[in-house]
Amino acid sequence: MKQNQEELMTLIQERVARRREQGDYPAGLEQQLDRHYQEILKGFKIGSEEGGDLQAQLQNLRNSIFFTPDLIETWSKNPLKRAVHRLMAKLTIRQTRAILNQFQQYAKSMEEIIIQVLENQELPSNPDSKETKKSQRSDMDRRLSTTLDRINQIEETLKHRSEK
Amino acid sequence: MTSIHQILVGAGQTDAITNIARNLQLSLSQIGTSKIYAQHIAPEVKDVLPLKDYEIRDSEDELVIFHASDGDSEVYRFLNEYLNPIVVIFHNIAPSKFFEDIDPSRAVKLQQGWEELKSLRPKVKLCFADSPYNASCLRELGYTNVNELPIGIDANRLKSTDPCLAMSHRLDRESSGPLLLFVGQSVPHKQQETLVQMQYLLSHFTGTSSTLALVGPPTLPLLNTAALEQARRLQIPNCLFLGQLKDSELAALYSRAKIFITASIHEGLCIPVLEAMSFGIPIIARNCAALPETIQEAGVLLPENAGPELFAEAVNELLENPSLYHQLSEKCEETLEHYNTEMNAEKFLNSLSGLL
Q: Which of B192, B230, B347, B353 has the highest count of CB atoms within 10 angstroms of its CB?
């Protein structure tokens, strides 16, 4: 007899319900397995990944902290407008520089605060620092040990099979 | 002389979109010169040229086909500077929300991909989507007259590949019982941990002797490592993490697989599902994104929030119910009729003729 998707789904859901009733699938098993996986994942999610992202953003911030009147466009297609823009720029250069200097100082202070916050969070700011290398090495060791364990498990299985 | 070149964001030796571009290149070569360019090229790829080598020229006989699958500002800068008509083939871009916690920089890139594709709209003269789901995504971005056509997809590609003997021997040694196969990248929305947990239930709770093989590039190695670690801690038997494989090795796995299984919650089409169907393998998947329209009646569609218990029981039902298994297996061939490479290529070339 041909079964459509709806009938098939009911059949499978009934199977799960039966297993649960019989105690084959203990209550909350799926949630427990998911929590178990999430904990493992959290353990592997090394701080350096998040730190690396913050470091990249900090670098972007550093690159943008360069305030100069030269970056203010004075060019225009219209020669008259172009002359007016240039004249205005010359007339207000003292004020423009003063404002930009204040921005520059503000941005530098902000940068210093962000670096301090990052250091307080113990996020390594230097990828070559001892701490970063230690963390990377420990992560590599964990991954390597997982792989070796898995290989051992496979070897054990093969050994048992050949003994049979 | 007519030139129709293809632009990819990234090219890999076994990458599905690169393979689509290669298939399409064979058809395009019939009407003129056709090269494939990409921004990021895997070292082993020899038939794709770097995008920086593309010389933009103003010619009425030239157009580019852009395979949209990811975000990349350099590629979009090139497309915005390009002077001739652009044709888009949309393969979907993973929604950024899946990556926000685990890989924020990737999430930003993916979000940019969606925005860049939207901004490219005025330059696009013709657009294609390889599935109805992808077509609806393009329409949401404001694209009109979207053509639904699975261009360049050769679902039978692996069926005609000789299976790797070494992989077959490995499966003889390391697997027992029916082989449950998953093929896909290790990215958050593929949720391969659900499959590992399903294997745990099958082996420890229902006494089903099966082997789960997880195949695919470790795009986010962290996810593979965590799933592998869970398998180790729970002592789950017969859980094979095989990584990225060659076509012949994949052919060996498909030849052996009893069921193709995926817990993915986002797919624009899912080519591994089509490849599995070419071997007559029934599918178990979640009823979401493009999966129902790709699988149709050749598999079991579980609810979008299905957990390992439903997956395990779907496997048990298929293994214990031979008539259901055959019913789904028989539907595979019929479902694949839509992916006729030659017929779709001809339709595509006819559509292009209006632009040249």
A: B192
Q: What predicted TM-score, i.e. pTM, was given to this entire model?
A: 0.77
Tell me the β-bridge partners of B3: B33, B62
Tokens linked to A106: 């503000």
Q: Taking Cα atoms as reference points, which of B342, B294, B298 lies closest to residue B318?
A: B298
Is the CB of A33 less than 8 angstroms away from the CB of B310?
A: no
Residues of A in contact with B104 (CB under 8 A): 50, 53
Structural domain containing residue A80: 49-123
pLDDT tens per residue, chain A (164 residues)?
566 889 999 999 999 999 999 999 998 999 999 999 999 998 887 544 555 566 666 666 666 666 777 667 777 778 888 889 889 888 988 888 888 888 877 877 777 777 777 666 654 445 565 555 655 665 666 566 566 666 666 666 676 666 66
The runs of H, that is alpha helices, within chain A are 5-22, 29-44, 47-64, 79-91, 93-120, 130-163
Q: Is residue A154 part of a domain?
A: no
ipTM for the complex?
0.91
Q: Is B45 helix (H, G, I), strand (E, B) or coil?
A: coil
- Name the residue of chain A whose CA is nearest to B327's CA: A2
Question: How many structural domains does chain A have?
Answer: 1
Question: Residue B245 pLDDT > 80, yes or no?
Answer: yes
Q: Does A157 contact B206 at a Cβ distance shorter than 8 Å?
A: no
Interface contact flag, A9 B301, Cβ < 8 Å: yes
Delineate the domains of chain B, giving CATH numbers in brackets: 3-152 (3.40.50.2000), 165-338 (3.40.50.2000)
A88 within domain boundaries: yes
